[in-house]
Structure formats: structure tokens, C-alpha cells
Amino acid sequence: MIQGMEPEARRWLVTGRVQGVGFRPFVFRLAQRFGLPGRVQNLAGQVLIEAEGETSVLDAFGAALLTDAPPLAQPEMIHAEKIAYRRLDHFAIMPSATAAAQIHMPPDYFMCDDCRREMQTTHDRRYRYPFINCTQCGPRYTLITHLPYDRANTTMAEFALCPACRSEYENPLDRRFHAEPVACPACGPQLCFVAPGDRVTGVAALDACVAALHQGEIVAVKGIGGYYLLCDADNAAAIARLRASKQRPHKPLALMFPWRGKDGLEQVQQELETDASARALLCDPARPIVLLRRCSDSTLPELIAPGLDEIGAMLPYSPLHHLLLDGLGRSVVATSGNVSGEPVLTENSEAEQRLGNVTQIFLHHNRPIARPADDSVMRIVAGKPRLLRAGRGIAPIELDVPGGFTRPLLAVGGHMKNTIALGWGQRAVLAPHIGDLDAPRSLAVFEQVIADLQRLYRVEAQAIVCDAHSGYASSRWAARQGLPLIRVWHHHAHASAVALEHCPQKTWLMFTWDGVGLGEDGTLWGGEALHGRPGAWQRVARMRPFRLPGGERAGREPWRSGMALCWESGLDNRPSTTDATLLKKAWQQGLNSPVTTAVGRLFDGAASLLGLIDNASYEGQAGMYLESAAAGEAEAVDLPLDQDASGLFTADWRPLVSALLRADVPVAQRALQFHLSLAHSIVAQARRMQALTPFDLVGLTGGVFQNRLLAELTVAQLAAAGFTAHLPQRVPCNDGGIALGQLVEAGFAHG
Prior knowledge:
The chain folds into four domains: 8-93, Alpha-Beta Plaits (2-Layer Sandwich), CATH 3.30.70; 191-365, DHBP synthase, CATH 3.90.870; 394-502 and 738-750, Nucleotidyltransferase, domain 5, CATH 3.30.420.360; 508-730, ATPase, nucleotide binding domain (Nucleotidyltransferase, domain 5). Helix 15 (558-568) packs across helix 17. Strand 2 (38-43) and strand 3 form a beta hairpin. The chain is of the alpha/beta class.
């Protein structure tokens, strides 16, 4: 110590992602490195750190708390202060406290390289153990029952630690110090393989599962957040059986590739096109499903994604997945183990009961799953990764809300792609994807997640925010709760979600294009331009309205939209069948033919008129086919933009119909022309609004902008016209982001 320099004591309070990431042992080791006595303590979401020493050393230590943190940690300094000097003689990790704090829920993490090496080392006691983990990897969100994040508050509480695991768990210098899911073959969860006439456990269960996959069987495998249905991705017959038994004739299936080569991507790159961004996203700690184009020489069966040029790919993220794919040696189809549209199944007996029509072969384990979590899905659009489904590894998603909330709010989302959000203080939390709310199980999980989120974050909602459409299951549930109810227009929620990501205080011109959502005038919107900011949106432009013959059926039967586009344009392009004649009469009279501006239905109609699809077996199929078909060169068709007496602009899509029907032009060029024309129309609307209604930023949101071709054409054309377009990135642009937008809209509009 320098003569005359007095030691001092300091306290730091750190928040952010500091739970379940080995932050306390990191602080312990850091204090040892600097030679500082003191203590570190978990305060239910915040971490309290105290240390004593020379000023310069404490300065360096305080800086290193943020700069040298573990890879998965995202610490944020709340404050640092001087405290009384006590002459401490060592550094201690204190037991967790339960004080109210800024709780942060850790997501489920992929298996780290250290654990993977141990699992593959023959003399290691965790050799081929499918539940290996440490502070830098393993499940979190799906096994936490209460906070603080301690073993007793997880589904691992029933597994008593053996002496070897306990020694690791209690040693601050070990990377498994307070790794709450820590386990080994002697004390942890075990596998169980079940098939007709066969039941084996442990390593034998793993080998039996690999053998079944080799033989072309479909196997339901329990993962971190629920069950998968797996089959050999090279076996077209197995894929066909899976599709038939799951009643999923066309919807694309995701693939999981084995980790091969130095970067793990060797087999992926043999089948799918990857650039640097795609490779980074595949290897991201979240390990999402990433949508990638097939290579021209790909050998993957067409049945994986019929009619599409992209496949959803992911790398194994759990020890069990690595072991299965290492054993099989090639990729597997990995689709959610659920009844279509519902959350993934998590209970062993329920999985056997509800998946029995798909397979009789199961790989179970006995680690309970606290709540389901499906995989996250991402797509690189306009050079950036965009979230299409918030799930395992990413959600819960936490965002700061400028200005905050005057009272805690619960937002219950929409009906499709449902998720929920919780807002309090200056925080908003978006829960993982739940699914469509058509089935009793979906509603049960919806209610469970609502209860869980409030309990885990220790926040009790004082009001509920829901969609203005009173027929949504989420809206009906909200109306029954006896709390103040705030109804938010569907497209205002879309707009507010993307505004929050970028700058909610600025004035926006926001294009909200999707399927259908109830609008302020009682019609079905989906092709709007909104001006303003959260809490103060005004519709300034729209696509030309048209009537949907058959109402909701039109979403499943694109030919109906195709016929409506022709009829609205004064054309008859369909054979004069009895059904078509009767339908046209009903359409003319407005019977079961609601008015809509939805661009999603324009895509449906265009795909039908091009002969790509007449009946859809999954949501968005027509639009995906149209995007996949587009190629070559084309020129945009000008869509007239007229203003009515109220000042509202309408973009007229009717000139597109004649272009779509030109048999002398290849389908690929007509499909491209459709996309180009819509992008061109957005630029025309932005230019017109710029002169009349000034704005700072342009936004693109709604499910239609999942379409990469449309989004990138629009971004490029806007840039050429001097506008910078902003798309959602951290939050889905589809209805998976509605709950967050509802929170923001309600918060800004109602305080």
C-alpha cells in the first residue's frame, strides 16, 4: 500500500441479466484476482457487491464487473457508492435474499463447448449424460418455479445432489458453483425409451432411440421445453407418414442438423445457403430456427417444405440433441410435439395419450418442465436478423419503456400466434410464444403463463389490455377478470410495438400490413398507413377496400380472394360454376362478405390468380408460395393514389389484377411484379404524406412484412427516395408482437 493512502469500502448494485449465468462466482473470482475482501449477494434479480481496498484497485474492479462479465451475462450498473470501511479479511458469497428488486428471468441456454467436450470424453463421469450443464448453459426459464433462482425453486429440487455434484455446486472456483440444474448419472434425471413391447432406461434408452430413427420410425422426444417429433430427414417415407398422421400436408418442417466441422455448420452448408449473418445466427446462444434457402444441389426431400425454396434449420442446443444426432450422423426433422396450433406437450403421460395417433415410440425423461417453450424462429431480412417467433433461448424478452406505466398492466395479445406481456415501472416483458387460442389446452397454457409471469416478477396487474375485437378468446378472457379493461385497436398495437423498439417519441408514418384485424370503422383492416406515435395514431392511407366472399373461409381458401379481386375489377376469370355463381350473388349483396383492406388477402388472391394455390392448409401458405415463385425481372405497376373528402388516401390495387392475368408473361415475373408494385405504392404514399403530414420515421410492420422479398424491395425503394425504413427486430412483426404493442399503446394513451 502506498504510504498515506487509506483503504476504502464501496458498494455496487448491478441489475440486468445476472441470474443463472454464473455472475456471483465470476464476482468471487474477480475479487480474488484483485485481492479484495468483501461479499456478493443475490437480491432476487439484482446483485449486491461490496469490496474493500485501495481506490485504484476498487476502480479497476468496478469497471471489470461490466467489461469482464461471463458471456451470457448482461449486467447493468444501477449505482456505486462509498460505504463504511469494516476491515474485512475475505470475500464471501452470501445466501440469496428475497428483497424486492428488478427481477430478470433468464431464458434457456444452449450447451456450452466445455460441457460438450466433457460429454464426449470417455473417462469423464458425465460421458454421454444427456442432462449435463454448468453456469454457462442449460435450462432456466422452463424449470424455474419461483425466484430467486436457487435449486430449491426449480424442478430440480426433487433430485438430491450426490457428493461429487455437491462439491462442485458449493465450490466458488468451480464453473458449476450454484449451477442450479447440476446433475450427473448418479443423482440426476434419466431417460426412458418406450415402444410397443420395449422399455429401457439410461444410455440404453438413448441407443434405442437412435436405432429407431435409423429404422425410419417417428419418435416423440422430450426436450428442454417440451416434446419434439423426430424422424430421419433423408427418409421421405417417414416424413410422409409424419405429415399424414399429424394432418400437416404442406406446412414446412424444421430440420436439426448435427454439429459437424470446426464451426459446427458442415452439414448445414451442404444443403442450405449461408452467409456470414446466417452462420452467426445459427450459432447464436439462442440457437433459433433460421430460415435459409436450399442449395441448388440439395438432396433434401421436397416433402420437407413443399412449394418453398427455404427450410427452417437449427443446430442442436441440448446435450440430448447432440447425442441423438451424433448417433444418427445426419439431420432430423424436428417439429413440435403438439396438436396443430397448440403449445408443445410437456407431460410424459399426456404426450403418450395425445400423440398416440402419430407415434407409439417415445423418449421420455423425468425432469419436470415448469412451462412449455417452443423454439424461436428467425429470418434475415434487409441485412438484419428478424424474430418471427419468440421462444426458447430468447424469451422472455425485456424492454425499457420511456415514461413507464402509472400502474401494472397485463396485455393478453391476439387470437393467433398468441403471447402475453406484462408492463410495470419502466419495464415491459414479452412472454414466449403460446400459439393459437382455439383449443382448451392453448387456453390452459395461456392462463398458466399469465399467472406465472406475475408470480415470477412479483407484479400484480391492475388493469388488462386486449384487442378491440371482442370475439378473440384473449379478449373474452380479459372481459371476465373483473379488472379495468383497455381495448386497443389491432393495428395501433402493431405500430406501437415497432415504435418502442426504435423511438416511440418520434412521429412515424407506419405501414401496418397483415391478414385482417378489426379497424376503427368496423371493417377489417390490414393495408393501412398510420401517422403519429404510440397513443396517438391516425389512419392517413389504406389499400382499396374489397369484400371477402365467405368471410373467414377466405383465409383458408385463397381462390375466394382471387375471385373477389376479379369481381371488384369488373372481370370474370373463373369458370361459371353453380358455386361461383351463387357466391358472386352473395358477394354482390354483401352477405357474409365483410369489407377489408388487408394486404394479406391481396397476396392470397394474387397467388390464386397465378395458379399457385386455391386452398391453403396453413396460415400464410399462399403468400409464401407467391414469394417463393417470384424471379426474373419485372417493372412495377403504378397503383393510383386518390384522396377522399376526409383526407384519407386510397391506393387502388385494381391495375394489378390485369397484370396478374397476363398468360403471355411467365408466372415468376408476374409474382415479382406484384411485390415490386406494392413496394412502389408504399414509396408513393410516403412521398405524398411527406408533403402533407410531416413525419420523422417510416415503419413497416404486420405479418405481411415477414415476406423478405417485399420487405427488402420496400426498404431499398424507400432508401432510394430518401427514407430510412424501420422494421421490428427484437419483437415479431406478426401477431406475436401484438401483446407488447398493446402495452405500449395503452401506456402512452392512458398513462
